[in-house]
Each structure stands twice: as structure tokens, then as C-alpha cells.
Amino acid sequence: MPLYQMFCITKHYPEYKHIRELIRQSATHVMNAGGVVRKIDSWGTRTLPQRMKRQGPYANVGDPRTLRSLNGIMRRDPRVLRWTVLKLADKVEDIAKEGQRLASGTTRSNDIAP
């Protein structure tokens, strides 16, 4: 099962209920498709480095069906300014191996030496 991480920047609302509903909607969508939501973090309200507005749709070639539909939800939701989904690994074991490699201090041949 592939592992993904999603980052989302939303418009500012004085009441948290708008953001809570967006999180509930997104998490429910993932869980209804057989996925698992492991963690939800809020970074609070921040000043953006530049003014942002919503952009038009972009290519979703190769995304699994759940990611395509989640991207559709984010694209249509007026609360969302920007979002991205990062693929962390194909399997949990891949992340564990990378953690062991980093903990042992070994480097791969394509890593840049200091």
C-alpha cells in the first residue's frame, strides 16, 4: 500500500469550524476508499509569502483513483488555496529501510558527499 502525505493551505477563517469540516471531508474520503489517516497536524495561522489565488486544473496522470478524486475535492473547495500530495513510499518497509540506512550512517552511491 503506497504511503502519501498531503499539505494544504486554506483561506483564513476566524472560526475553526470551516477548517474542521474540510479535514473531516478529506479524511472521510480517504477512509471510505480503504485508506488510513495516520496523523493530522495544524501549523496554525501564518502570513503567506505572497498573495495566492486558486489556479486552474493541472494534469493528474498516474494518480490512483482516490488521489484523483481527492484532488477534485480540493480543486472545487473554495476554502483551499494550495495543496500538494507527496508519495513517501510504495510500502511501509521502504520507509523503515530508509530510516535504518540513515540511523546507521551509510550512504548510497548517488548521495552527495559533504
UniProtKB/TrEMBL annotation:
InterPro entries: Ribosomal_bS6 (IPR000529), Ribosomal_bS6_sf (IPR035980), Transl_elong_EF1B/ribsomal_bS6 (IPR014717). GO terms for cellular component: ribosome. GO terms for molecular function: rRNA binding; structural constituent of ribosome. Pfam families: Ribosomal_S6 (PF01250). It comes from the Eukaryota. GO terms for biological process: translation. Gene3D superfamilies: 3.30.70.60. CDD domains: bS6_mito. Belongs to the bacterial ribosomal protein bS6 family. This is Ribosomal protein S6. It comes from Candolleomyces eurysporus.
